Amino acid sequence: MPLVRCGKPSSRMRPLPEAFFQHGDTARLRRAAARCLEAALQAADPRAAVRRALTLDGHWLVVFGDASDLNHFSAIFVVGGGKAGAAMAAALEEILGDRISAGVVSVKYGHTAPTSRVRVVEAGHPLPDAASVAAAEEVLAMARRAGERDLVFVLISGGGSALLTAPPDGITLEDKLAVTRRLLDAGAPIGELNTVRKHLSRIKGGHLAQAFAPARSIALILSDVLGNPLDVIASGPTVPDPTTFADALEILRRRGILDVVPAAVRAYLEAGLAGRVPETPKPGDSEFALTRAVIIGDITRALGAAEQVAREWGFNIVILSAAVEGEAREVGAALGRRAKEAHEGRYGPLPVCLLQGGETTVTVRGHGKGGRNQEVALGAALEIAGLPNTLILSAGTDGTDGPTDAAGAVADGTTVERARSLGLDPLDALARNDAYPFFAALGDLLITGPTLTNVNDLMLALIGPAPGRAPVDRPRDGAG
Asked: What pTM, to 2 d.p., does this model score?
């Protein structure tokens, strides 16, 4: 499938194999869905987001209307963590050039982009590794270099919590890995996960802003968290933390894992509760007078781009939500039921495109291979079994879904039938959290490769015309 390129976007999508599109009455729906996904990725392009946020006029730098005289600063440093960090750093280099003195950003393995003045290091995600710790220490070392006449850009995007890991004294990387695995397996949403992470870190929860003071800092944030809460995205390294050690302990207790996390983790959190370990920096602390944090992109722009493409292809559009959350299989089932309602005329004449964005969770019950978007698609497949001209897509905008190389998957009305003809049981795959091999056998995985962006997940349902009506053939106005 040819790809439409505009300029030099950093967000990219690997062409899907032609076999992906050869599935009976959904062939054209699959092409439309793929175009919607690619448009969403291009709209979430971190380079473009940075260029929209910053302009340089001589020695005046304007960040969303706030001007700074760069002649005031002796040095400019760039640090960051997240899957979009390399692309963001490359864009900042295009704007500031040799004004940048030094920099380092930590990205997920494979999510690199060429840079000249900012060093890009690769580290582990969703679970941190030794490289994540080394990257965090390098960032903290740069903080020690920065003085009161220096400016620091902090580039933050999804994945930053894992990619910058700085455990406090008494806590090992293995301890943090253990508690993170427990929380992920328990289906903890990102807010809960990051509350615990912030209280087991020397860099999260405002600690990075504390480390950079008295230098001034500007955080440019590509949001992957619903509602764009600054203290949750990448665990809020440059903003005040409203959560407490008590909150972290309560999350572990409520998720039923307080008694099984490493003893050192529990002891450290309890020491914080007792006041023997300082709390994370709070609103009103002096260091935050030197910081500014701005959201430069989120899921809403990506949804808007997908909407535009679907409209050009002739679909009537219904945007369901930009803040979907919940258990992945249940979210998928709900989207499948809405697709059935579209066939019944609830959303107007066909063809219809239902769009939503957000981030679901998976409570791990089995030992299979998969991710939340694949479980959304599998949950939907069971609801739309037998429906003609119906396709559901769920994909992570970063190009990875859980610990897999797939961004997500698609399901149509024939998914269940085709699977059973191959001896696959969709209910068993769900029970074992084993959606990856299920969709791999059907050729319905979305393998996009790293996209160099991350703004939550995109979910859409395309419901084509009823039997006997003209199928969706090509986009209107010559698009695509």
From this structure: 0.88
